[in-house]
Amino acid sequence: MMSQPPTAQFSQMGLDGAAACVTKIELRIRCTKLLNKDLTSKSDPIVVVMQQDKAGKWLKVGETENVKDELNPQFTKTVEMNYCFEEVQKLRFIVYDVDSSALDVNSDDFLGQMQCTLGVVVSNTPYQQKLT
Question: Are 25 and 7 in contact (CB under 8 A)?
Fold first, then answer.
């Protein structure tokens, strides 16, 4: 899975009037050599992006569109996030094969996942890691 360079940088003012070290970024995601979980066609992948909060809970921050019959998708829908320079922002990318029109991806086939920090993605663009 690869991510392309962040875009649209800005600084945000904190509540105390000091500039916070924040950059608005877009994650562009693509996958290669995904598993084929469908019998009569190819997988229909979607990527769900999760971020771990300070309490350790994983929260959904975005998802790509669903691409039909494709094992090497290059998703067009980006995931926008704030990158905080001084924080460790743990991310999890979960890839599913969408088999139904249900809104709950947990009912779909799991194709794999990867975890990293947003800092690693930003400093190693394009970033690439195998799914587990």
Answer: yes
